[in-house]
Amino acid sequence: MELGKINTLKILRETDIAYLLTDGEEEIFLHKKEAKRPYLDDEEIDVFLYVDNQGRPTASTQEPLIQLGEVKLLEVVEIGKRYGAFLYYGMIKDLLISYDDLPTTFSKWPQIGDKVFVKMITKGEKLFGHIVGRKQITDEFPNRIPLVDNETVKAYVMYLLDNGMVAYSEAGDEIFIHSNNYRDEYRIGEFVEPKILKLNPSGEYVGTLIEQKEVMLEEDALRILEYLEDNDGKMVLTDKSSPELIYKTFHMSKSAFKRALGALYRAKKVELNKNKTIKL
User: Which segments of the chain are extended strands (E)?
Assistant: First the structure.
């Protein structure tokens, strides 16, 4: 019998609450609530084998959304800080991504409703969802329709890097988004809609979550105004501040910061001093 896969087994006999199934060597229970109809002795049926809430191998006639060794996109239905993230895959018991397979920072964990690409693996005779390497996801989806420049794609964040993040479409398209091309903090499994900028020779798409400069100028300016309002109407950041300090505070480049600051100055929203910026 193969745990995590669909097996063809024979009905050995019926009990009060279950059917006893066999492959000729081992035996396993199919609870009657998991049966689709009454079965006859010696009848062969297809069942998925998993581990129930009591840690016992058991059978189900429900078709799983993922089987052992496969990579699929699954939805997060529960979070437990002591355990990890639980994913729905069609069984009564959900599939666990162990906490040691997730970022050390809890705010970067997926939340309920997020979706994550995982591979089903066995560990200690139990089934788990495992976050695999980047190229293993694209390898599982070889027949993808090419994306085109300026196309907006529905995707889910999967990897958080020092210089950006990587998201994947439901079709398995890999999309790298540089940190200069987004403003907010993101978590694994979060839904995003990047615009495709280009396709790298490696087969990786490059995307952005920032709109056109003229649109983003307004958003950047609003971000600075909100910061001033939250800090008594003043800040030590100016157009002379270092790019590192600007990015740390606003997650935007110095050039974008200067454009936004200039727009606020021309609109008479701020006063620019040598060492600080003041909201008017």
Answer: 6-14, 18-22, 27-31, 44-51, 57-60, 71-80, 84-88, 95-98, 115-123, 126-130, 155-161, 164-169, 174-178, 191-192, 195-199, 205-208, 234-235, 270-272, 277-279
